[in-house]
Design goal:
Length: about 400
């Protein structure tokens, strides 16, 4: 399977990536495997070079700091746990002269919170997201082994509640997360007069989803989405609820077997959860395009100490994957891994306090969300599961953060 990679053309010589970054990636990666052969990494640009390609919306007159410098400072600050523009500006004030020079700073007065705010509010969010996710994808590289498991891509939306304006409108962003690495494959803003459905195709248009399993919530169980994914040679696994009443009734009436085709039991936080999955061939005439299997997923949760039933419910779903493409065990894995996009949003809320942020102007809320996605993706690639602990480490070891974005301190 081919993993997408942003192709960027540079004028002149492409700068080499710091060898220390290669060593860090090779040494610190635990369960994550970079498909890119190590000998290809030195040809990659640094993140600073990629950020330098983002168009600067500011007037050249009176401009004191390069946009790439401001963005790089913000990335490093967020890697160290910065939650606000004031914290980003504080990181810049605390940086030594050598670090400022390395990041492309001029050595003049350090940028203030307002400088960051004005620049970020005017940025084109789509172009910044393209640059950030493109660099992550270059780290993921160009290919995977032929026997690699099907990659999942989970989609979900999140409102940036702290950026609510006087009229009650707040930015709403839809993200796509690779479930094999936990990295953010893309993000798209929802038009204020629309909903997540309209962001589905524009988000996936910029990603090579060939052969991937796309999961989303029931809002995206739409016939046009199914046709679109089929045209893109991707698979879907979508839950069916009341927004598709005929489809739900048809699935609910199927002769589901008493015994599950796959079962998994896990114990966590004093609870025992058993997940079972049953899969049947999609019946002829099922009112959903390209459906090949119908799925019933049940979750049964009990208190480990008392045996009291806490939850028991089932979810119907539909997929265009045949059993040859995705076995019941595969389908169970994809449904369980969908939580990764929810985890992304939880980390942005808890570790980075996104919903408490008072950044509201223009594109600034989305800019900060994109930088948080980038930081989380980088830390995930290094094998960190506890992002809060990772940010504390990066705050205490700034040289590690510089190495992580491809710069030797």
């Amino acid at each position: 399977m081919i993993v997408w990679c942003l192709v960027i053309t540079f004028a002149g010589v492409v700068p080499s990536m710091s060898s220390s970054l290669i060593e860090d990636l090779s040494r610190q990666l635990e369960d994550v495997v970079l498909p890119c052969p190590p000998d290809r990494l030195p040809g990659l640009p640094t993140l600073l070079d990629v950020l330098g390609m983002v168009p600067d919306p500011r007037s050249p007159r009176g401009r004191r700091h390069r946009l790439s410098f401001l963005l790089a400072v913000a990335v490093l600050a967020v890697l160290g746990g910065a939650r606000s523009l004031a914290a980003v500006a504080q990181w810049a004030r605390d940086a030594d002269a050598d670090t400022v020079t390395l990041l492309g700073g001029s050595g003049r007065a350090q940028p203030s919170r307002r400088t960051f705010g004005r620049a970020f509010a005017r940025l084109d969010g789509d172009l910044l997201d393209l640059a950030c996710r493109g660099w992550i994808n270059m780290l993921l590289a160009a290919s995977e082994p032929d026997d690699a498991a099907m990659v999942g891509l989970s989609l979900d939306g999140k409102a940036v509640r702290g950026a609510e304006d006087a009229g009650g409108t707040m930015p709403h962003l839809v993200a796509a997360v690779r479930t094999d690495t936990g990295t953010v494959a893309g993000q798209r803003a929802v038009d204020v007069k629309s909903n997540e459905i309209t962001a589905f195709r524009p988000l996936l248009d910029g990603i090579d989803i060939t052969g991937m399993m796309i999961t989303a919530d029931a809002l995206h169980t739409q016939r046009e989405h199914a046709r679109y994914l089929h045209r893109r040679s991707a698979f879907y696994l979508l839950p069916v609820l009341g927004n598709q009443p005929k489809l739900y009734a048809a699935l609910d009436a199927m002769p589901w077997p008493a015994d599950p085709h796959h079962s998994d039991t896990s114990r966590s936080r004093g609870r025992i959860e058993t997940r079972t999955l049953r899969a049947l061939p999609a019946p002829p005439g099922l009112p959903f395009p390209h459906a090949r299997q119908a799925v019933l997923i049940e979750r049964h949760t009990v208190d480990a100490a008392t045996g009291k039933v806490l939850h028991h419910y089932g979810v119907l779903a539909v997929t265009n994957a045949t059993p040859d493409h995705a076995t019941p065990a595969d389908l169970a894995r994809h449904t369980k891994d969908h939580w990764m996009v929810e985890n992304l949003h939880q980390v942005r809320d808890t570790t980075f306090a996104e919903d408490a942020s008072r950044v509201r102007t223009g594109s600034a809320p989305r800019t900060m969300a994109t930088l948080r996605n980038l930081a989380i993706s980088l830390l995930k690639l290094l094998g960190w599961d506890n992002i809060a602990a990772a940010t504390r480490h990066m705050a205490a070891h700034r040289s590690d953060a510089l190495n992580l974005i491809g710069l030797a301190s």
